[in-house]
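Q: Here's a chain of 119 amino acids. Please give me its 3D structure as tokens.
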Amino acid sequence: MTTSQQRQLLIQKAKHHFNKTDPKLADIMDRVELPFSVIRHSHLEELIQIIIAQQLSGKAAKTIANKVRQLCPEKKINLDSLIDIKDVQLREAGMSHAKIKAVRDLIAHVEDGRFNFRR
């Protein structure tokens, strides 16, 4: 079972618990979308999603991140797929020029070793 599946199972258990103990909270959980940080991805994908989400509503950020993910061959944001995606495609997905620049800068730092996720 993947980490994402484990989290989904925990969330379902929590909803089931609150259906019994606190129906109002259970109702709120059903109406509120989960933040990106609850749905785990690679560290790079997490950082990209944070860049995308800056100064946007959760729903708008999620929509843009999903559009970017759809541009990736495996539907996962990773270094190789981001290198191949053109800036115009990212703009069409809804990313601003500044966010594209930030993502490109992050990629450059990861590629040349200035940024290491393992430190």
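Q: Can you summarize the key feature?
A: The helical segments are 3-21, 23-31, 43-53, 58-71, 79-84, 87-93, 97-111.
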